[in-house]
């Protein structure tokens, strides 16, 4: 296919106007050394029909349609067609970052609404208009804290998503950040402050990666004691039923926003939600939409606090983010509006009920135990089985279930650990089917 | 409570009034969503940390939600409505076939933690685009984790650091030209490096002598986009790369402008070691009102062991995820913006090698043609032929009429075009940075030139009119100072006012 | 050649200029489409009647096509943008879940001549909706071939004729009320019947005495919508049906107004023998700018043998296509507007019995509420409580101010609402026929009432302003006389001008 | 689901305003007899998730994804995603017939463009903005001719689509139209005028239902001789390669428009294309868009020639059509613009080449013969096999092919007849696969 409109007549006419003979003359001033020595080895052009066949064929090489019990930030919640339909309007999809507010009121207002809803959900007054994803938002939170507190250590619970911790680790060295891990005991974080440097922030996860509901107040107390910011990584879809981080007095909350409005997408594009308390308002990373007026006094929206950003502050900027995940944020806000408080509550409630039902069923299977027995959990939980969890996942896939995420890679202490997530989408038959399939898999060894 | 019930007054279609925010449509008890009844026995579960009440989200009907969002769509310009010559952003037309691919359920419904055995198609997508991207850039391996250009820059800089550390060195500075995009210095300093800035010379290119004197043992690398932000090809690039390599520095290619040289010249052949590409520019991913994008980073053979991981590798017949030997670690929560990558692959396969080269040719042809059609009111500060975009200066116009680059840009809106980029790069006074892209027809380019020229005319005859532009958009210019001074960032804050 | 290249001036978003027709974007040799290379050996085939040249279609890029169509979308009002109280048209919100169903590839990619063995799902769709529709209307079997209401009418009238002929009779007239929709008399006469019109009485209902005297042996049937086109429930319906049945006539229900009585009252219980439904009104199929619709016809047990065929029948475990015994034959090229039927089924299943009844309740509630909020400038000519819509008269307003129903309707546009239906039914002077539908909120209904009332106010204070409305739409009123006198029906005719 | 916005508070408030106590009071004036005696037996409401499961389950009961070689008016051509995306814009989908031109310029202009392209394609100057489908357009053509010529007979070739002929037959009796069939000999129509009434029109099909290319001039000559209108049913997708009916001097052309822009849709919604010569302009059935100006002199579009229509002419209208197939026409015009002359030509060319390739392959199979040997055909042709074609179709479906349409029901003279259509979408592998599968099926008996 060719998506350039130029006919050969067009090209000739334009070249003639420029006093050039051939199209390659456009590049005559390029030094010879930079031209490829041999013709590039690239595939031939394909027609749309051929491209579609090709993508279809690749798609067939995925085993799609498994019943998903994997979570860890990315969840298989019900996504109504209306959200996709509205989000995919070309006015949103094919516009740039809304620098020109006169032509961007649609996107700007939707992002303003997104910020408002995230503020409601987190109980924190200020939200940006999205970051890349949940885990990388954790890095931005740590950066903010380090810059704000002018301290280099951060205390991080081992209940924080392993990918969040990995990303922070990737960057910590270059930025001179010292990461202090805090262990989980019985599934909940034990803040063991002895003998380590005073942190800029403590970071916990609610519920944590094992699905366990942590103690907000205890963490907040530690932060206060240390004069540190309190940062919470939260699970988006249980925000409808759990206390907000703002209510718990946290300074920063971040989340993987995928469950709002975005398909699982093999993990991307998704979006990072990020909200802060009022004192941190002018330090928040990422784009921010504010309400103002136009020269005729009409309500209008515009990008604001631009002075924080890289294009203005350059090497002094506290974040380098430019392109973010606007369209995913728009999807999130449309989905949240569709859900409303009652819907969000119901998703949380049903997920919790179904998770507990499944956990109880699994506990009854021979050899299956809860990884953190007795610890409170919401809609995700970890089990231990005698088998290698990778093997379990592979065998369960044969039976039509994406059984969960093996824990052993990230938590060697749970060698047979499998993290299981349940959403409102799973029917009782599917839950029962899962239990039966797992029983078979374990029996087969 | 509801102040625009059902009316379409908010859309320019009829009237041009304001669209209320969604909370204004909220009525207690109203809702759009519905779910099946709970089909497991209701358990008596009491959770710690339970919320006292559901969150204060708006309560609206699906009908009101749909109309609201559609009306907002009518208040937004987009490539799919008209030409969008926003320099540095490559706002080309994005073929709809790529949307089809990104919505393919075999990919969009895939959980990222699925074991490789059931996601061979997705892994193949990455290997396939990696091969094409490496061939186009002259690199040898790539990571698709970085979700945008800036994230690619950070990734590349961490690779640079890891490379030096692997050699037991720890140089502390990275050189960038003064014309660099803001993300470059920001990334450099966030990666823990000093920014060392080199000036442009009177050709609008990096001053080779200045570069030579900036290079010393403490230089970890050099970051550059080529064509540079003035739309000019850095003709000394090979010599510059040599200078850097002499101190064992690495040369980083900011791929924002890759569109101009697809299939024509390769960063690898120019001496670059690390290359990020903005798939959302060069490879036809629509920009989504600000994102998502994708900023894959490709590197030469010797840097491949440092790539973030895991990356897909073919092992026998199957593809699996492996961690590169000396990987800097993870830079994204999952595998990057995978569906954006899939879109880009779809685009690349549709165009093929020939088509990709045509992208470069015609993007340069359009820019060169447009530049040639502009009247003398727009000075072109540097004489070298432009590539896919050019920067004009409205400085003379401003001196003559008081009309600034900003005014010209806003006036263009009244002609039905999106504004160009303004006041960037910083090295040009009253800069107007114009990138027509290859998907615009010659007629559109001519119409754009006419609009620019008529605006310049008007600047001479009725400057106030131009200074008050736009006149025909849904709103006039916004009070950005007010927005920053009295921040209203949510409807909660609005309610407090 | 191209006179709006790339510009969005044509859209109200910026400017409000005109959008050129697509031929204006055409450039010889430009194209959007591409196909795989022919993969069979090129045969030497010379066809008789070959074209000398390819047809003169426009030659445009995908980019220009997309922008053109999107800009045109910005020039069109729709339910998805705001309230659309167009009487008789039931412009309710159409849930997006129904779009999902209509695009389901298991149905949309099905060839109509596929044997029943491979289309059991599609046949089941028809049986399932048939059962629901028959229960709602009190009928016993249905055909889904008619693609719209008018086609349903023709079908019903042919069934009527076949019924009489089966009894050896050949009566020649069908009675309709003077308030009937235009398709009713047109269908009656195209079905070869005489139209016998009966007047409305001062209640706005069919005059029972007049009907009695119109009925004789030559009467084949009676055609009625109930609630009638005044939005009033015909209270004597049972007596009327009896009168017709006494001469062995059949009573036909025009289902355009079924929305008002869903689950509340059934045509079958009123004495109707044949019922068409407009799925594109009552059952939430969007109207598509004029179609497609679907006008299934349901009949009582004794008329089932005359239905068009084939129709799906369950035979043992399987469903197959059968021709009803005395079928009038085929009325559609295939199986009717099947995807529209699938949409309607989706809607019915989502709402369920309770939800369907709520449709009637709330559509009537909204109409009654709106009627009650209108000021005295709008006379309600008949006192009976309205159902899902009502007809107001602007006759007094016209006498007082010169402002006509048409002006009021056009002025409503400036308030962001679609205009109501005007000058129908014919029995009301300066008629404004208003149908808010059940999907509008009370706030919207109130805003609509406010708009009507403010317009009446303005009619008294500044009648010329109202007479020149709309002022805020993409265009003002069109010269329809010119369009008819100097027809320009294609761009070819435009070029000849 | 519930798509009404009323909360119980809303309902109470509104009822109170109306002086009513309960919602059922709204219906108090309805006579008792018309109320259902028992509660209606209707299904329970379903949530979106449940509706989707239900529709999915029904969909699974279709065997979809067969390689389609059935045609007969509805064809499996390549339909690019861009056409669907543009057509499904809510401004087009959720608007009514464009009576209010001020708010309908988008739809009106698109229909004007549709009319223009249909005029180009048919070689006739005037097109309406769509009728229901191809076959029912045949009925409208006959009606027009009968009214125009004030004669009651029409001569119809047996090569005209059987469904077109059936629809005409359904209505002919009521309208007093006398239909005279004209036979096919060797696949082409023989106009045998002896002893039958002078017709208002002669109706032929190009190519005809058997796929055979007919002789336009011969038919036109017969029409002229009889003083009748010449009407052609044409195949949409070969209009790019065959002579236009306008060029052949025909007065009316109609076609099934599905192949332009519309999926097969189990046969509906599709659209009827309908074009006439200038003298018939004011008699054309259906909606017509005309160009005019607004009060400020701007170009504007409006529905025109409204006086012909049922809402104005009532019982004197020559057609009762009201709702038509606008959205399908919009899809058609967008697809035609995407195709352009080159694309339309290429689709025709490739379809013809592939059809001939397949026909040649099939002719070589044991027992397979062309039904009309030697007759020229474009992209559809009829074969004869020794087996019952219904059996062949069923057996081929088992092998993944929708083999064609059995001819025997409509043309008893072709007992073993199967009508096979080939589009540009079919690859050479699929054509070869078809031949192999048919060979197997015939060998199995
Ligand atoms: C030259 C240049 N470099 C880097 C970037 C940053 O890319 P992204 O916005 O994808 O983070 C941009 C984008 O604006 C750019 O124009
Ligand atoms: C009362 C009435 N009857 C019949 C019809 C005709 O239905 P359709 O437009 O679907 O042919 C209509 C539609 O306008 C109508 O309002």
Ordered list of secondary-structure elements with their pairings:
The complex is a heterotetramer, with 2 copies of chain A (445 residues) and 2 copies of chain B (497 residues).
Chain A: H1 8-18, H2 48-60, E1 67-68, H3 81-87, H4 90-93, H5 105-122, E2 126-127, H6 134-149, E3 153-157, H7 162-175, E4 178-182, E5 184-185, E6 188-189, E7 199-206, H8 216-226, E8 229-235, E9 252-256, E10 272-276, E11 289-293, E12 299-303, H9 310-313, H10 326-363, E13 369-370, E14 380-384, H11 389-398, E15 401-402, E16 405-406, E17 417-421, H12 428-444
Parallel strand pairs in A: 1-15, 3-4, 3-7, 7-8, 8-9
Antiparallel strand pairs in A: 2-10, 5-6, 9-10, 11-12, 13-14, 14-17, 16-17
Helix pairs in contact in A: 3-10, 5-10, 6-7, 10-12
Chain B: H1 62-73, H2 96-102, H3 105-108, H4 120-137, E1 141-143, H5 149-166, E2 173-177, H6 183-190, E3 194-198, H7 208-214, E4 219-224, H8 237-246, E5 250-255, H9 267-270, E6 274-277, H10 279-282, E7 297-299, E8 311-315, E9 318-322, H11 338-373, E10 390-393, H12 395-401, H13 405-414, E11 421-422, E12 431-434, H14 442-461, H15 463-467, H16 480-485, H17 491-496
Parallel strand pairs in B: 2-3, 2-4, 4-5, 5-6
Antiparallel strand pairs in B: 1-7, 6-7, 8-9, 10-12, 11-12
The structure holds pyridoxal-5'-phosphate (2 copies).
Short description:
The complex is a heterotetramer, with two copies of chain A (445 residues) and two copies of chain B (497 residues). Chain A is α/β, with parallel strands linked by helices.
Main beta sheet of chain B: strand number and arrangement?
7 strands, mixed
Mean pLDDT of chain A: 96
Average pLDDT number of chain B = 94
Total of helices of chain A: 12
Question: Could you explain how this protein is built, in words?
Answer:
The complex is a heterotetramer, with 2 copies of chain A (about 450 residues) and 2 copies of chain B (about 500 residues). Chain A is built from 12 helices and 17 strands. Chain A is of the alpha/beta class and about 450 residues long. Chain A folds into 2 domains: about 120 residues, Aspartate Aminotransferase, domain 1, CATH 3.90.1150; about 250 residues, Type I PLP-dependent aspartate aminotransferase-like (Major domain) (Aspartate Aminotransferase, domain 2, 3-Layer(aba) Sandwich). In chain A, the strands form 5 sheets. Chain A has a 7-stranded mixed beta sheet, with helices on both faces. Chain A has a 4-stranded antiparallel beta sheet with strand order 13-14-17-16, with helices on one face. In chain A, helix 3 packs antiparallel against helix 10 and helix 6 crosses helix 7. The radius of gyration of chain A is 25 Å and the shape is globular. Chain A starts with 7 loop residues before the first helix and ends with a helix. The model of chain A has no long low-confidence stretch (mean pLDDT about 95). By secondary structure, chain B is an alpha/beta fold. Chain B has 3 domains: about 35 residues, no CATH class; about 260 residues, Aspartate Aminotransferase, domain 2; about 120 residues, Aspartate Aminotransferase, domain 1 (Alpha-Beta Complex), CATH 3.90.1150. Helices cover about 35% and strands about 10% of the residues of chain B. Chain B contains 17 helices and 12 strands. In chain B, the strands form 3 sheets. In chain B, strands 1-7-6-5-4-2-3 form a 7-stranded mixed beta sheet, with helices on both faces. A 3-stranded antiparallel beta sheet of chain B has the order 10-12-11. In chain B, helix 9 links the parallel strand 5 and strand 6. The longest helix of chain B has about 35 residues. Chain B is globular, with a radius of gyration of 25 Å. One pyridoxal-5'-phosphate binds next to helix 5 of chain C.
């Amino acid at each position: 296919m060719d998506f350039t409109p130029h006919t050969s007549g067009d090209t000739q006419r334009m070249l003639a106007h420029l006093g050039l003979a051939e199209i390659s003359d456009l590049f005559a001033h390029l030094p010879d050394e930079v031209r490829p020595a041999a013709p590039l080895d690239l595939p031939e052009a394909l027609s749309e029909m051929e491209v579609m066949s090709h993508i279809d064929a690749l798609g067939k090489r995925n085993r799609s349609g498994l019943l998903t019990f994997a979570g860890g930030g990315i969840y298989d919640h019900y996504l109504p067609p209306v959200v996709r339909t509205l989000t995919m309007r070309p006015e949103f999809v094919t516009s740039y970052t809304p620098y020109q507010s006169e032509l961007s009121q649609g996107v700007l207002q939707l992002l303003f609404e997104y910020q408002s809803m995230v503020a409601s959900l987190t109980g924190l007054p200020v939200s940006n208009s999205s970051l890349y994803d949940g885990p990388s938002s954790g890095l931005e939170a740590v950066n903010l804290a380090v810059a704000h507190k002018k301290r280099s250590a951060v205390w991080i619970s081992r209940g924080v998503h392993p990918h969040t911790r990995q990303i922070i680790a990737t960057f910590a060295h270059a930025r001179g950040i010292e990461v202090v891990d805090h262990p989980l005991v019985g599934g909940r974080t034990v803040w063991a402050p002895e003998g380590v440097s005073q942190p800029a922030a403590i970071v916990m996860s609610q519920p944590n990666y094992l699905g366990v509901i942590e103690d907000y107040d205890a963490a907040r107390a530690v932060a206060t004691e240390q004069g540190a910011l309190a940062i919470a990584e939260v699970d988006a879809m249980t925000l409808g039923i759990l206390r907000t981080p703002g209510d718990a007095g946290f300074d920063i909350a971040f989340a993987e926003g995928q469950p709002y409005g975005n398909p699982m997408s093999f993990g991307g594009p998704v979006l990072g939600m990020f909200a802060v308390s009022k004192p941190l308002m002018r330090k928040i990373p990422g784009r921010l939409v504010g309400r103002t007026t136009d020269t005729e006094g009409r309500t209008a929206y515009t990008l604001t606090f631009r002075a924080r950003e890289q294009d203005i502050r350059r090497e002094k900027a506290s974040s380098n983010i430019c392109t973010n995940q606007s369209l995913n944020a728009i999807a999130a806000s449309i989905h949240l509006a569709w859900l409303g408080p009652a819907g969000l509550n119901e998703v949380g409630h049903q997920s919790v009920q179904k998770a507990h039902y499944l956990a109880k069923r699994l506990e009854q299977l021979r050899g299956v135990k809860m990884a953190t027995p007795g610890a409170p959990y919401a809609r995700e939980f970890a089990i231990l089985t005698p088998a290698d969890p990778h093997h379990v996942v592979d065998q369960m896939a044969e039976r039509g279930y994406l059984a969960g995420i093996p824990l052993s890679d990230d938590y060697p202490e749970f060698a047979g650990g499998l993290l299981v997530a349940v959403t409102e989408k799973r029917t009782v038959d599917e839950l029962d089917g899962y239990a039966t399939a797992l029983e078979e898999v374990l029996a087969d060894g | 409570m509801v102040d625009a019930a059902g009316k379409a007054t908010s859309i320019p279609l009829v009237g041009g009034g304001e669209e209320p925010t969604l909370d204004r449509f909220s009525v207690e008890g109203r809702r759009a969503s519905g779910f099946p009844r709970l089909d497991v026995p209701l358990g008596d579960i009491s959770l710690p940390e339970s919320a006292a009440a559901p969150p204060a989200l708006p309560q609206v009907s699906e009908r009101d939600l749909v109309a609201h969002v559609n009306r907002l769509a009518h208040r937004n310009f987009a490539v799919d409505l008209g030409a969008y010559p926003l320099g540095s952003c490559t706002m080309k037309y994005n073929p709809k076939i790529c949307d089809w691919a990104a919505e393919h359920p075999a990919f969009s419904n895939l959980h990222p933690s699925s074991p490789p055995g059931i996601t061979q198609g997705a892994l193949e997508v990455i290997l396939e685009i990696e091969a094409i991207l490496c061939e186009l850039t002259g690199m040898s391996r790539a990571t698709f984790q970085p979700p945008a250009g800036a994230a690619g820059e950070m990734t590349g800089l961490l690779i640079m650091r890891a490379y030096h550390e692997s050699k037991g060195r720890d140089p502390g500075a990275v050189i960038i030209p003064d014309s660099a995009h803001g993300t470059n210095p920001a990334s450099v300093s966030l990666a823990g490096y000093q920014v060392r800035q080199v000036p442009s010379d009177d050709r609008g290119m990096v001053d080779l002598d200045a570069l030579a004197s900036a290079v010393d043992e403490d230089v970890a690398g050099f970051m550059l986009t080529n064509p540079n932000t003035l739309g000019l090809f850095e003709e000394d690039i090979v010599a510059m790369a040599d200078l850097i390599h002499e101190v064992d520095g690495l040369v980083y290619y900011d791929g924002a402008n890759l569109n101009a040289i697809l299939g024509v010249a390769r960063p690898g052949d120019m001496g670059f070691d690390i290359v990020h590409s903005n798939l959302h520019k060069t490879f036809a991913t629509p920009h989504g009102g600000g994102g998502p994008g994708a900023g894959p980073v490709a590197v030469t053979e010797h840097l491949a062991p440092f790539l973030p991981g895991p990356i897909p590798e073919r092992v026998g017949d199957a593809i699996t995820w492996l961690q590169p030997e000396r990987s800097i670690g993870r830079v994204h929560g999952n595998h990057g913006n995978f569906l954006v990558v899939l879109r880009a692959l779809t685009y690349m396969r549709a165009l093929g090698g020939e088509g990709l080269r045509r992208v470069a040719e015609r993007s340069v042809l359009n820019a060169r043609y447009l530049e040639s059609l502009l009247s003398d009111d727009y000075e072109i500060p540097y004489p070298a032929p432009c590539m896919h975009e050019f920067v004009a200066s409205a400085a003379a116009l401003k001196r003559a009429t008081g009309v600034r680059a900003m005014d010209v840009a806003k006036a263009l809106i009244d002609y039905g075009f999106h504004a160009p980029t303004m006041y960037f790069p910083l090295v040009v006074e009253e800069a107007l940075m114009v990138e027509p892209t290859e998907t615009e027809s010659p007629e559109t380019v001519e119409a754009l030139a006419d609009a620019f020229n008529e605006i310049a005319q008007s600047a001479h005859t009725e400057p106030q009119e131009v200074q008050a532009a736009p006149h025909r958009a849904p709103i006039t210019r916004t009070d950005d100072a007010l927005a920053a001074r009295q921040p209203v960032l949510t409807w909660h804050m609005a309610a407090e006012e």
